[in-house]
Amino acid sequence: MALAIEIASWVLLMSGSALLLIGGIGLIRFPDFYSRVQAAGLTDTLCSIFILTGLMLQADSVPLAAKILFTLLFLLFTGPTASHALAKTAHHDGLRPWKRNDGGASSNR
After folding, report:
1. 100 by DSSP, 3-state: which?
2. Chain centroid to CA 107: how far?
């Protein structure tokens, strides 16, 4: 049983780390602010779930696992709220989404 929990924990930790790396590459590659905010928000939330769940499985005591759970719940509420606030503020300030030109080249690069 302990081996199965250990394997599940490491699978979650490695999945979260890989997703974080892929999200970081997406932040560099995406063309506009709105796409980058979406990539950051999604990877932030999913990586938090995977990594903190993996850490909960490795916790030695129930109080430590509860602290990690409360941290996860806090991140699940604040991460999407912050992404929404950033996107709404950018839209309010007049930042327009990226659109492709007729020739296929990007318009804002």
Report:
1. strand
2. 27
Contact between residue 58 and residue 9 where contact means Cβ atoms under 8 Å apart = yes
Can you read off the two tokens belonging to residue 61? 């005591």
Question: Please, what's the b/e burial string for 26-51 (b: 16 or more CB within 10 A of its CB; e: otherwise)?
Answer: beeebebbbebbebbbbbbebbbbbb
**What's the per-residue H, E or C state across 24-89?**
HHHHHHCCCHHHHHHHHHHHHHHHHHHHHHHHHHHCCCHHHHHHHHHHHHHHHHHHHHHHHHHHHH
Burial of 8 (0-12, 13-18, 19+ CB in 10 A): middle
> Mean pLDDT, to the nearest integer, of 83-107?
80
Both structure tokens of 75: 């991140």
Gap between the Cα atoms of 88 and 77, Å rounded: 17
Q: Is this prediction's pTM over 0.90? A: no
For the chain, give the mean pLDDT. 89
Residue 104 is predicted with a pLDDT of 54
**Residue 62 scores a pLDDT above 80:** yes
